[in-house]
Design a protein that fits this description.
Blueprint lengths: L4 E6 L4 E14 L2 E6 L5 E5 L2 E7 L8 E5 L2 E5 L3 E5 L2 E3 L1
Parallel strand pairs: 1-8
Antiparallel strand pairs: 1-2, 2-3, 2-5, 4-7, 5-6, 6-9, 7-8
């Protein structure tokens, strides 16, 4: 699927999630920001808050939600979220 990207969410102790997603929203110091396939390369700090993403092929309102206490996000060809700690909501 051309409108998807690989998302990995990693903590210091484990890989929390890995899969193809269509949309990612997470909280940065500037507020909640969204990321789609083809987003320009960036690296940003994450604030404590909800990380939400929609998996490839899921419904428009079918979001996965997780609570993170901070970390950073690295956007390149895919997206890696390095979370200090995270849990499913």
């Amino acid at each position: 699927m051309a409108n998807t990207f690989n998302l990995d969410i990693i903590t210091p102790s484990k890989k929390f999630y890995s899969g193809e997603v269509e949309h990612l929203i997470c909280k940065t110091p500037a507020g909640y920001e969204g990321f789609l396939a083809g987003h320009s390369y960036t690296c940003k700090l994450l604030e404590e808050g909800t990380i939400r993403f929609r998996e490839a092929g899921s419904g428009e309102n079918d979001w996965k939600l997780a609570q993170s206490i901070g970390g950073f996000i690295d956007v390149k060809d895919g997206v890696i979220v390095y979370a200090d700690d995270i849990r499913w909501e």
